[in-house]
Amino acid sequence: MKKLSLSLLFVFIYFSSFGQNTLKLGDNKSPKATLADIAWLSGHWRGEAFGGITEEIWSPPLGDSMMGSFKLVSEGKTSFYEICQLVEENGSLSFRLKHFNSDLTGWEEKNEREEFPLVKVEKNAVYFDGFTIKRISNNEIHMYVVISDEGEAEEVEFKYFRFSK
């Protein structure tokens, strides 16, 4: 019986982690990385999520950061924005963002922000704590973010395609 319980526990752990695209930093230190490692993110991207159109725009690296913005449009109206920053500091990278309503009133307090330290960087992927960006091709990226709501955490996938008129 003990062997069966351990086997079932292993199967549960295996399948509950299968398909997960995000990582946790835990007590580890962020690895060495530079903005050059993720310069492929630069560009204008569009996709669909949360029942609407999502848009991300990322500037090329300049100085010690990359500047980004996010917008969700549902039923022809902007739902919310994010101002984002990928920053080089202490020999590694960090992803920061602030949320804004459609009228630019902020979600976070004035001096607060969401921050995701770097966990791992690969040629076509960058893993921040609870937030992952993967390059599928030069014209497609996927982002995965762990969103918590009332104690429940869920990994959400965003598929983006390079936008051009």
From TrEMBL:
Residues 1-19 form the signal peptide. InterPro entries: DUF6265. Pfam families: DUF6265. Residues 39-146 form the DUF6265 domain. Keywords: Signal. This is DUF6265 domain-containing protein. The lineage of its organism: Bacteria, Pseudomonadati, Bacteroidota, Cytophagia, Cytophagales.
